[in-house]
Specification:
211 residues, mainly alpha
């Protein structure tokens, strides 16, 4: 097990990262508003499985291989950027809708919601970078057990924190949507702002180099 002080510090950092808006949060908000809290929570299970996948890859050293192979990393990075650009266009196009805007959609099956949540999570290379760069700083290979055990403990902490925060956001998304539905002007402002942010994130992800 990691040192308790290291575990607490890592949990606080994970909390700050979970509160920062990103593709996973945006997707969960959209699903919760379109199909209700249950759909958002089912999608969250898929997102969480993406976290688990990256955690295990980092703990076993596979993520290091991914980062060492330019083509593999770049393919994942560009796919994620393309997905963000698609979301940005959906918000900014004439007649488009913001992620907080209530809209009628045919309900997706639980399997599709789960799969889309998983894909959204896996297409975000920032998660891989986070595990690769952040975990080693909190691991003590000399006196707190094996590196693998410490990596799994720290990764599990991040997952618990992130899933808890995103579950709360998914549950509250409906209330935000109701507020915006009563304020049409706020809908337009929110849609433009969100589309711009998504496009900026996509461009940044597309042009940034490997670290």
């Amino acid at each position: 097990m990691p040192d308790p002080s290291h575990l607490l510090a890592f949990a606080l950092i994970s909390l700050g990262m979970a509160l920062t808006p990103g593709p996973n949060m945006i997707y969960l908000i959209s699903r919760s508003i379109c199909q209700g809290r249950r759909a958002g929570l089912v999608s969250l299970i898929g997102v969480a499985l993406g976290f688990v996948t990256y955690m295990l890859c980092a703990a076993l050293g596979i993520t290091a291989l991914l980062m060492a192979v330019p083509f593999a990393y770049d393919a994942l990075r560009l796919a994620g950027a393309a997905y963000l650009l698609y979301l940005a266009w959906q918000a900014l196009k004439p007649g488009g809708r913001g992620v907080f805007q209530v809209k009628q959609l045919p309900p997706d099956s639980a399997r599709k919601l789960f799969t889309m949540g998983l894909v959204t999570s896996l297409l975000n290379p920032k998660i891989a970078v986070m595990y690769l760069s952040l975990l080693p700083q909190f691991i003590d290979p000399t006196g707190h057990g094996s590196v693998l055990a410490q990596s799994l403990a720290l990764g599990s902490t991040q997952i618990v924190v992130s899933v808890s925060i995103n579950a709360l956001i998914a549950v509250m998304a409906g209330s935000i949507a109701v507020f915006l539905a009563r304020k049409p002007r706020w809908q337009a402002v929110q849609r433009g702002l969100m589309g711009t942010v998504l496009a900026g994130l996509a461009l940044r992800m597309a042009v940034e180099s490997r670290r």
